[in-house]
Design a protein that fits this description.
Layout: E1 7-9, E2 16-19, E3 30-33, H1 36-44, H2 51-69, H3 75-87, H4 94-109, H5 115-145, E4 153-156, H6 173-180, E5 186-190, H7 197-208, E6 212-216, H8 221-226, E7 232-235, E8 239-241, E9 246-249, H9 252-262, E10 266-269, E11 275-276, H10 293-296, E12 316-319, E13 326-329, E14 332-334, H11 338-350
Parallel strand pairs: 4-5, 4-7, 5-6, 7-10, 8-11, 10-13
Antiparallel strand pairs: 1-2, 2-3, 8-9, 9-12, 13-14
Helix pairs in contact: 2-3, 2-4, 2-5, 3-4, 4-5, 5-6
Bound molecules: 5-S-methyl-1-O-phosphono-5-thio-D-ribulose.
5-S-methyl-1-O-phosphono-5-thio-D-ribulose binds next to helix 2 and strand 9.
């Protein structure tokens, strides 16, 4: 099955082409983003979504801003403004601000270059961030697969597949790879209320990849675990604090509590760029609050809740590190003590040892 290219720079280099994820699974439509405002809107409204994917899109966006503003006297101020503006599109996933700070760091280090060279350097830096994510995903898929055996069952939440990252995805990577290896893994996909990333995107990607996937409502996870249908939980992650507390789509921490109760190992899969060593613990992670209509109206033929009802709609929650068996990263499977082992893994990556 042909791999979906969820984000790419256009051949002429003046736009970003993304799959509009809000239309899936009924329609596979590619849209073109030319301005920072269009990119901001696409990230905010989840046309492009998933922690690594919004980082990659932002890196390309930064390059587009540099290309557009290269001739201006206030070039540097404009680029600082672009970092602040794009980072504000979504607050929880660290990959967004991480990618922008990598791009801005490259600009600062090379600010003395002639503008055309500087812009070209930024194009290559954005491509490098994207390529690194592709190769990290491949390694995550390989490491994740070591946790499974032919016939295993896995439950997953939200969407951490190719659409949310690049190529294999993170939590879905081992599951897609298992098909290539001739293994049979049975996957239960939480629908993931309220925006249904599990039902719309995970089910779509896994079916496309030939994985045996069964869709469940979020409140069915307990019975699936109790009936012995799964051996592991695999989810993605949006921001991992230094102590291993980790934010992911709302409902993830409940799944981790259930998994703990039933003695099922709970793994989070993601690149090291999702680890935020500047945030000591989960209490420091800002949780995005989204609009009420996502809960009361969106995805229903008719509004289903009374007009004016109060709604609480946090888009993410934080899973306590004590509930996490390990983080599957491109540098291997990281277990407790997390802070120490994250540092070691980052060193290995910096030294090209993984
Ligand atoms: O609000 P979303 O759809 O961007 O949330 C995405 C998730 O929570 C994913 O699980 C996470 O970004 C990991 S993606 C590899």
């Amino acid at each position: 099955m042909e791999k979906l290219k969820n984000i790419r720079l256009s051949d002429s280099g003046d736009s970003i082409i993304i799959i509009d994820q809000t239309l899936l699974p009924s329609e596979l439509r590619y849209i073109e983003l030319r301005t920072r405002e269009q990119l901001f809107e696409a990230i905010r409204s989840l046309r492009v979504r998933g922690a690594p994917a919004i980082g990659i899109a932002a890196a390309y966006g930064y390059y587009l801003c540099a290309r557009e503003d290269a001739h201006r006297k206030d070039f540097f101020d404009r680029m600082e403004g672009a970092v602040d503006y794009l980072s504000a599109a979504r607050p929880t996933a660290v990959n967004l601000s991480w990618a922008l700070s990598v791009m801005h760091g490259a600009l600062k280090r090379n600010i003395a270059l002639p503008r055309a060279e500087l812009v070209e350097l930024l194009r290559r830096e954005a491509l490098r961030i994207h390529e690194d994510d592709i190769s990290s995903n491949r390694r995550i898929a390989e490491y994740g697969l070591t946790l499974l055996r032919d016939g295993s069952g896995v439950i997953t939440h939200c969407n951490a597949g190719p659409l949310a990252t690049s190529e294999y995805g993170t939590a879905l990577g081992p599951l897609l790879l298992s098909v290539e290896r001739g293994m049979h893994i049975r996957v239960f996909a939480d629908e993931t209320r309220p925006l249904l990333q599990g039902a719309r995107l995970t089910a779509y990607e896994l079916m496309r990849g030939g994985v045996d996937v069964t869709l469940i409502c979020d409140n069915m996870a307990s019975i699936v675990m109790k009936n012995g249908l799964v051996n592991a939980v695999f989810t993605g992650c949006d921001r991992i604090a230094a102590n291993g507390d980790a934010a992911n789509k709302i409902g993830t921490s409940g799944l981790a509590v259930l998994a703990h109760h039933y003695g099922i190992p709970f793994y989070m899969l993601g690149p090291l760029s999702t680890v935020d060593m500047n945030t000591p613990s989960g209490g420091g992670i800002r949780i995005e609050l989204r609009s009420a209509d996502e809960v009361t109206e969106m995805h229903y033929a008719h509004r289903m809740a009374p007009e004016g009802v109060k709604v609480y709609n946090p888009a993410f929650d934080v899973t306590d590190h004590s509930l996490i068996a390990g983080f599957v990263t491109e540098a291997g499977i990281i277990t407790a003590p997390f802070e120490y082992n994250f540092k070691k893994a980052m060193e290995r990556k910096e030294n090209g040892l993984c």
